[in-house]
Amino acid sequence: MCTRCPRLVEWRKEAAAHPPARHRGEEYWARPLPGFGDARARMMVVGLAPAAHGGNRTGRIFTGDRSGDWLFRALHRAGFCNQPTSLHVADGLKMRDAYVTAVVRCAPPANKPLPDERDRCIGYLVREMAALGGLQVIVALGSFAWDGALKALAASGFPIKPKPRFGHAATAEAGPYLLVGSFHPSQQNTFTGKLTEEMLDSVFVLARERLG
Q1: Is residue 28 part of a domain?
Q2: At what angle do helices 66-77 and 197-211 cross, to 10 degrees?
Q3: What's the domain range around 163?
Q4: Which of 41, 71, 107, 143, by CA, is between 20 and 30 Å from 186?
Q5: Which of 68, 31, 64, 51 minimizes the C-alpha distance to 108?
Q6: Residue 129 within any structural domain of the chain
Q7: Number of folded domains in the chain?
Q8: This prediction's pTM
Q9: Residue-by-residue pLDDT tens, the chain, 212 positions
Q10: How far apart are alpha carbons 178 and 145 in whole angstroms?
């Protein structure tokens, strides 16, 4: 089990030891979180990090939290999964041509991983990209994931210079890959209307257009 980032190790355990009342009595995953999805996926969705009481609790990325509710509804509408909900690892969710992961694999305090924590973790994302032999589209949720995806692409031999600017529905070409940006489906963005369901859907329309 990875222990490279002491701050994150402490926090993932702290969150599990002191859950909110709604999750009291549940057994938490409280370990680094792997990606999840179709091994033949042509699209990868990259988030920031597991939520303390979402993926860190359930053991599956974007599962059991409100950001995941938004993400999987959109993926379902776009035909990338068989159901619009992701509640727990035994809920029957199956991905179709899509794989979901994160730049940082442990829950960070205040949902804010540090750049050095990202850099220590980026090798896992590089290996996941290599393992998905048919990968064509990478959707980055938020600027932190965008920067992480750019680092992973550079480490894979596909640097983009000058660095492309993040924005919702921004795109950049990197060798065989299309990088697409999206605002993160965090409550901060969805409650304020910075990200709407129509905006999130538009990102996966771009992905579908590339995949054909």
Answers
A1: no
A2: 50
A3: 34-211
A4: 41
A5: 51
A6: yes
A7: 1
A8: 0.97
A9: 899 999 999 999 999 999 999 999 999 999 999 999 999 999 999 999 999 999 999 999 999 999 999 999 999 999 999 999 999 999 999 999 999 999 999 999 999 999 999 999 999 999 999 999 999 999 999 999 999 999 999 999 999 999 999 999 999 999 999 999 999 999 999 999 999 999 999 999 999 999 98
A10: 14
